[in-house]
Design brief:
Largest interface: A-B, 99 and 99 residues
Protein name (chains A, B): ROK family transcriptional regulator
Distance between the termini of chain A: 45 Å
CATH topology of the largest domain in chain A: Nucleotidyltransferase, domain 5
Oligomer: homodimer
Order of helices and strands of chain A: HEHHEEEEEHEEEEEHEEEHHHHEHEH
Number of domains of chain A: 3
Domain HTH marR-type (chains A, B): 30-81
CATH class of the largest domain in chain A: Alpha Beta
Shape of chain A: globular
Number of strands of chain A: 16
Helix content of chain A: 25-40%
Largest sheet of chain A: 5 strands, mixed
Region (Disordered) (chains A, B): 1-22
Pfam families (chains A, B): MarR_2, ROK
Strand content of chain A: 15-25%
Family (chains A, B): Belongs to the ROK (NagC/XylR) family.
Strand order of the largest sheet of chain A: 6-5-4-7-11
């Protein structure tokens, strides 16, 4: 009797699905989907034993899921087993798909992911979006989306939703970009600018990157702090497998943690923020490089070649990251810190000084730091998978579409 | 279709109660308790309409709750209403009670709180526990607990559980004090040292203080950062009405957030941690005072009298708190910051410089700072209420005791 004492609300108060017979059925549909999804393929009997329902109850649920195109039967299981042969079930490779899109500072990207988690179509356009108005950017993005959707539809898929990753803060309404400094967008509602045919979610790229790490990162636990960078430095906090969003949806602003409180002024109004030491622009200046596209690639290349100026700049950035992360780790006690986005590619030169700060400033064992294998792909994949997850988590929502 | 996209786990995966008919019944029992508790008194029909169940279903649940001693009937409602008169229900003032206990650096305290949330018995012993071994301290505490329980029992209450607040880090097992620097306790399992008759939970005083603020603080929202101090500086993060505990149970270590990374060394291994500027010891030294008990009282008294040395020391502490809180607020985006514990009493002299830092370093409106009205009472009340909440959240657990 330890944890239950701290349940601050009546059990169930935070759930999406109502606590009725119908809600229970919807949750059980989700359990079936997740059980089959986790196993790859599974008989009805195996599903029943895994989720603790009767074979009869599971069969009713499975029949609906097959009718909606979410599960498919792989044919009878191999003979030789005792009892009536059951047909193995698998998550359908046709049917609903998640459409993920990314508005990057230097690129646009779109992909379609099926319920099995496989990328089935993809399109990318390189070129800066810095300072461009939202309309032309979203028009280009819409063209890419139509191209990817057409390709997905030819493969028997249909979009269950569209999720867009942006390099900025997004309001909790899930479609308004409150502030994207590197695009120079403010209070931009993407709702009217994106195709209206599918449910839309817009979120910060760091959030989608963290969700991708949670869902796709091998061995990533359910409690971690995900640090990423495109131009600015963002973070996302995952607790018990859930993203911590904050009251306004602005949680994760690690880039404006004061590292040296009397340091250089920051556009945010503060002084000595982490971005003044470890942001792309700060590192570029410290390394004595000119502004250019794909600065991260250049930094990695130069550091690899042994350029001492670049290496020193990255060391300094690692130190600043380590100081900021010490504060974050003390506050959150995550199981691990994951370096994603552009930081993943620079980690060989950032990590040593980062870890020196983190371990030197911590009583007891320091929080381990892990480098994301998804790197810059994280936000796009996280966006597409967020749609897929929504279907797996509440399969009944697609009933009317199927 | 915004938030559901981000549900990282199948709905219900995080719940305590199983998703079965029996689990549903237990959750509905909790709904009835919370509905009556929130309203003060309520007829069966009003309960049914508030929680969306039929009158018949509610009556069955209510009968059990009355039988277990959790609800009582106040007699028929006043006449003049249309329909058959219903008997108003209220949460029982007899039956289960929460026993809260606090091991402070300078005191021990125990109280009993009934299901209505009223303190029905209380005992305090002043005197330092600094450097004392766990055994004599817990023996004294046990004597106080027996005294409070005896008084509660005379009032028709029985202890549903015991919750103990400690000034240190507690493992997620809920009974081992990993580190309580000001008591000099390390890896102390309180399980065998406390009376074994009741379910035991041990937690950090900052956590219990935050829970008290959540449950009892008028107008406190469900997302806040609670900052408190006894000797060290602790914080607790409440998100969506739940305490964020961290992987090891160590979340909330705001005191070791680096404020000036090259500042004075801290026993934690770091440099320039918040505690080096805003901890009781640091403020005492900066104010030029000798060590003594109830330093906070003395600081408040001197500041009130206009002692410029003390005021300057508190101003500096407020600045350091503001720097650390800027980082925390950027990371968590809470709705408010609540100053509790000893900080509440010093807030008139801490807040101006704290708020200057917080607003000066934040883009957009600064996170509001609120002073807790519970102050030093928070941890003890939070402990006792955590037991009460556990009963309200799953009333069926007391069925066999009643």
């Amino acid at each position: 009797m330890t944890e239950p004492l701290h349940e601050a609300r009546p059990p169930g108060a935070g759930r999406t699905l109502p606590d009725t017979q119908q809600g229970m059925r919807r949750r059980n549909l989700a359990r079936v989907m997740h059980a089959v999804s986790a196993a790859g393929s599974l008989s009805r009997a195996a599903v029943a034993s895994r989720i603790g329902l009767t074979r009869a109850a599971v069969s009713t649920l499975v029949d609906d899921l097959i009718r909606w195109g979410l599960l498919e039967e792989l044919g009878p299981e191999r003979p030789g087993r005792v009892g009536r042969p059951g047909s193995a079930l698998a998550v359908s490779a046709r049917g609903p798909a998640g459409i993920g899109a990314e508005i990057g500072v230097d690129h646009l990207a779109v992909c379609a992911v099926d319920l099995r988690g496989e990328v089935r179509a993809r399109a990318v356009r390189r070129g800066t979006n810095r300072g461009r108005a939202p309309e032309p950017v979203t028009q280009e993005l819409t063209a890419l989306i139509r191209q990817v959707v057409a390709e997905a539809e030819r493969a028997g898929l249909w979009p269950a939703g569209l999720a867009v990753a942006v390099p900025g803060l997004v309001a909790r309404d899930g479609h308004t970009v409150v502030r994207a400094p590197n695009l120079d967008w403010h209070d931009t509602d993407l709702g009217p600018l994106m195709p209206g045919r599918w449910p839309l979610t817009v979120d910060n790229e760091a959030n989608f990157g963290a969700l991708a790490e949670l869902w796709l990162g091998a061995g990533t636990p359910g409690d971690f702090l995900h640090v990423s960078a495109e131009i600015g430095i963002g973070a996302a906090v995952v607790v018990d497998g859930r993203l911590l969003r904050g009251t306004r949806g602005f949680a994760g602003e690690l880039g404006h943690m004061p590292v040296r409180p009397d340091g250089p002024p920051c556009p945010c109004g503060g002084r000595g923020c982490l971005e003044q030491y470890a942001g792309e622009e700060a590192v570029r200046r410290a390394a004595g490089l000119e502004p250019r596209e794909d600065l991260v690639g250049l930094l990695a290349e130069r550091a690899e070649e042994g350029d001492e100026g670049v290496r020193a700049a990255l060391r300094e950035a690692g130190t600043a990251l380590g100081i900021a992360l010490t504060g974050a780790v003390n506050l959150l006690d995550p199981e691990t810190v994951v370096m994603g986005g552009a930081l993943a590619g620079l980690s060989p030169w950032l990590l040593p000084s980062l870890e020196t700060e983190l371990s030197g400033r911590t009583a007891g064992p320091a929080c381990p730091v892990k480098v994301s294998r998804l790197g810059p792909q994280g936000p796009l994949l996280g966006a597409a998978h967020s749609v897929v997850r929504a279907v797996l988590d509440d399969p009944a929502v697609v009933a009317q579409r199927a």
